Amino acid sequence: MKKIGLAVHNIHEEYSIELIRGVEKYCSENDLQLLLFPVNAQKSENHGFEYRAQSIKNLLTPENVDALILSSGTLSSFITKEEFIEYVKTLSPLPVVSIGVDVPGVPTILSNSKKAFTNNIKHLIKKHHRKNFILLCASENNYDAVSRKQWFLETLESFKMYMDKTKIINADFNKIRAKNAINLYISKFGVDFDCIVCLNDGMAFGAIEALTEHGIRIPEDVIVTGFDNSKRARFSEPSLSTIDPQISLQSYLATQVACDLIDGKKTDEIYYVEATERFRVSCGCVKGRWLLSDSVDYYGRRHNFSKKSLYSLVHSVPNIVNTELYALHQLIQNSLAIVSLNELYRLISKYIDRTSLEAMSIFTYDKPKDYLPDTTSFKMPHKVKRVFVYEKLNDKNINTENKIFNPYKEAFPEDTFKHYYRKLVFYPLFESTYQYGYIIVPLENHDYLFYELILESFSKEITASIKLELEQEANTILENKNSRLIEYNTRMATLSTTDELTKINNRRGFTIEANKLLKAAKSKNRYGMILFCDMDGLKKINDTYGHEAGDRAIIAESKILQNISRKSDVIGRFGGDEFALAIEGMDKKSFKLLEQRIIEESNTYNKTSKEKFKVSISIGAAQYTPANNDLEKLLAIADKELYKVKAKKHKENK
Question: What secondary structure does DSSP assign to 127-181, as a single string?
Answer without folding.
Answer: TS----EEEEE--TT-HHHHHHHHHHHHHHHHTT----GGGEEE-TT-HHHHHHH
